[in-house]
Amino acid sequence: MAILNSESLIQIKIRFFSSLRSTTGLDQIEIPINEGETILNVLHQVENKYFIPKNAQLLDGDRKKLAVGTLCLINDVDISLSGGLNQKINSSINITLISSIHGG
Known about the structure:
This is MoaD/ThiS family protein. It holds the Pfam family Urm1. This protein has helices spanning about 20-25, 40-50, and strands at about 10-15, 30-35, 70-75, 75-80, 95-100. The chain is α+β, with helices and mostly antiparallel strands. It has one domain: Beta-grasp domain (Ubiquitin-like (UB roll), Roll). A 5-stranded mixed beta sheet has the order 2-1-5-3-4. A hairpin with a 2-residue loop joins strand 3 (about 70-75) and strand 4.
């Protein structure tokens, strides 16, 4: 995990919906990150800290993309349309995580 530099901290909000809300036990969190950190790095941190049980997944097995059935929105725009997981964060953003897998 990166060491936080207070001179370049950005506060971001992450909201959880559907089964991801049950997995984390939270509606939303606000976390500080270093300016220039990637979305993927932030999601690694979120998965490691907030996903309970630890076998719950936000990222796929190789941890380079979202797990199947997980939608990620950046400021309400799908990640695939807004620069992908490797985009750098240079200002405060909202990340929305939604599980599209559900019972029938």
